[in-house]
């Protein structure tokens, strides 16, 4: 009984620390349910529009989580933006290479350009021995990345952490719309359209940003 006064503050401390903003906002776990909430049609790959390209939320979630762990993307606000980008660009993960208009070598789940895919592939040590054979063939280099779901879904986190400035990332981590727009226009290099915003808003809600 004499231990209770000593244990009570400790138990309270553990309870408080488990619910701090840092523990809520800094994690790399992503669930299937969260992906479905962001990309509503990712629940199924029945009758996919492009053979061999569709991935369900069950496949996307662990591979995206792995990428956040690999590239140390722990901010929920950044994660929401990256997932929203990939879900939008891939049509709820139905595609992983460009079909419209069909740029050879453009792809992975965030549909990055052949130039970025070359940089990305070069950063993956496990692909080092295979790169020389596809160095002059963007489509085949893309196929190397698409063949492994970890690399296919890892491009979004890689792009954020290697191609976006510290200033852009700082704004994005705020979770604000202005921060998201800075990421889309200032780093991804495209328009922060209403269609893109809808994905981002779903991602923010799903991840609790």
TrEMBL record:
Domain of life of the source: Eukaryota
Signal peptide: 1-18
Protein's UniProt keywords contain Signal: yes
Keywords: Signal
Designated name of the protein: Transglycosylase SLT domain-containing protein
Native organism taxonomy: Eukaryota, Fungi, Dikarya, Ascomycota, Pezizomycotina
